[in-house]
Design brief:
This protein is α+β, with helices and mostly antiparallel strands and about 140 residues long. It has five helices and six strands; from the N terminus they run H-H-H-E-E-H-H-E-E-E-E. The protein has a single domain, classed as Nuclear Transport Factor 2, Chain: A, CATH 3.10.450.50. About 10% of the residues have low confidence.
C-alpha cells in the first residue's frame, strides 16, 4: 500500500474516533480534551487541513503549520492548567457553525502561575456526519 493511502486510512481512523462529537460544541470540547490529554493526533484530527488559527496577533494557516509550531506548547500548557468555561454560545447555520466561549484558565506553566480570562471564537464546518474546526481565534488577558 502506498504511503499516501496509508496516511489517508490513518486519518480516517482518527476521525472515526470522534464520530460521537455530534455537535460543534462537542467537537470543540473534544479538541480541548485532546490537548489536555496530550493527544496531538486526536487534536489534529478535529482540525481542517486548511484551518486558520489566530492568536496574539499571529496566524497559523494550516493544520500542518500549527502542528509544527504551537501544538506541542498548547499541549504542554493544557496539561498543566485547568480551563473553565464561564459563557458558551453555539449557532448553527446549515453546514457552518460558530461557537464562542469565555473562559478562565488557572494553573502553573513553566514554573509560573497562570490566571487568565480568555475568549475563543471557533468556526466549524459539517463534513458528512462530523463537524471539523476550520478557524480558531483566541485571546486572553491576565486576571488580578
Amino acid at each position: 500500500m502506498s504511503t499516501s493511502k496509508t496516511a489517508l486510512f490513518a486519518l480516517l481512523a482518527m476521525l472515526s474516533q470522534f464520530a460521537w462529537a455530534a455537535t460543534p460544541s462537542q467537537t470543540l470540547e473534544a479538541f480541548h480534551a485532546a490537548l489536555a490529554a496530550g493527544d496531538a493526533g486526536a487534536a489534529q484530527a478535529l482540525l481542517s487541513p486548511t484551518v486558520m488559527i489566530y492568536e496574539s496577533g499571529y496566524v497559523e494557516r494550516s493544520r500542518d503549520e500549527y502542528a509544527s509550531h504551537h501544538l506541542a506548547s498548547d499541549i504542554a500548557f493544557s496539561k498543566t492548567t485547568t480551563r473553565k468555561v464561564s459563557s458558551h454560545q453555539e449557532r448553527i447555520d446549515g453546514n457552518v457553525a460558530t461557537v464562542t466561549e469565555e473562559t478562565e484558565t488557572r494553573g502553573t506553566f513553566q514554573g509560573k502561575p497562570v490566571k487568565t480570562a480568555g475568549l475563543q471564537t471557533a468556526l466549524l464546518e459539517k463534513q458528512g456526519d462530523a463537524w471539523i474546526i476550520v478557524h480558531l481565534h483566541w485571546s486572553s488577558r491576565k486576571l488580578k
